[in-house]
Amino acid sequence: MLRGLRPLGQNPRPWLLLTSLVGWGWLLGSTAMLSIPAFCGSLPLAGYALGWQGIEQALLFNPPQQLLQGWWLMLLAMLPLLLVQPLLYVWHRSLRRKRWQGVALFVLGFGAIWSLAGVMLMALVVAVRVWFGLSVWQGFFAVLLLCLVWQASPFKQHCLNQCHRQPRICAFGLGYLRDCLGFGLSAGGWCVGSCWPLMLLPVLLEQGHVALMLLGMLWMLYERLLRPRVVRWYWPWPRHPRGLS
């Protein structure tokens, strides 16, 4: 059986692509959606809506387990192809008999960090939806502005650079287990720092969120193909227009 799975270590791309496609199919078949309590956006009830009672009402329409289930489906659909290089690194740095153990520990750590990030991002989504109420686009563009600033920031570039980091992995004993799990945790943390805006924005929309998820996934893959750059601000326009000194 292990011989039959050996090609996975040599070229995991087809398997990760298949995993992503399964996630997309499962996600498209899911009916989970973040709805809005009817009172949200009503000025006379703004104090009620923005308090704990408003949040409780929002969670009544959107149970936490449903939000997390939708988040895990997003992870399954959007992130597998980002793991090609890290998994190859773990595979080739591990003894043959320990390879699957190392891969499992890496995925466990990576998934744990993204699950924790999902709790925080879902809480942010609920807060934004309760605050802006039925004005979905106002909330979306407010968060979009924040995300664009983050995308251009040196903090984002630092996180993206660290996504290419390949730490030392011990060959034996508890050190091997610690290093594989730690690599998954650190890779997940840097990936969250780099990609959280692209994961957050689709959740804020009820219509068009699937297309935005697909665009976000393609952009994340494109960024991973870029070489590490100097940590500084990268605005989408030139700092000094041509012809001006």
UniProtKB/TrEMBL annotation:
Xref: Pfam families: PpoB2 (PF09948)
Superkingdom of the source species: Bacteria
Keyword Cytoplasm: no
Keyword annotations: Membrane, Transmembrane, Transmembrane helix
Bilayer-spanning residue ranges: 21-50, 70-91, 103-124, 130-150, 171-190, 196-222
Database matches in InterPro entries: PpoB2-like
Designated name of the protein: DUF2182 domain-containing protein
Source species: Pseudomonas protegens
